[in-house]
Predict the 3D structure of the following.
Amino acid sequence: MPTYNTNVFWDVISSIPACSSVKLYKSFQFKCFEDSALIMVAFGVLISLLYIQHASDLTRPLAYSRRSWKFCGKLGIMILTVLVPLVIFLNPGWDLIQTDDNNKALIIWICQNLGFLSALIMLLLATPPLCRKAGF
């Protein structure tokens, strides 16, 4: 975790009345660090494609009519399975943890990484068996 000597800088910012709500863990340097969690998208896709059992499950929805119940059902299952890890790990409630700004930024970064990774794994590995059992 990079640490910077920004105490003087943040003392000046927090002394300005309009900027009193600005937090260090929401600053540009920590946001850039957190945005690196998008790299987990590539790892999630690679891991999922390595362990997928039926590759035809990825192309099967292309054969459905866009107005069919099968397509809507599969899309609904996909959305629900991806929302579960995203709601858990990308929960804005992580900001409520009482700790210093460096630790809070680290907690948020770890949760974002876990959220992106688990959402992609759920999308590519868990959704096809669920849809197969549901008949989609």
Summary: The radius of gyration is 20 Å.
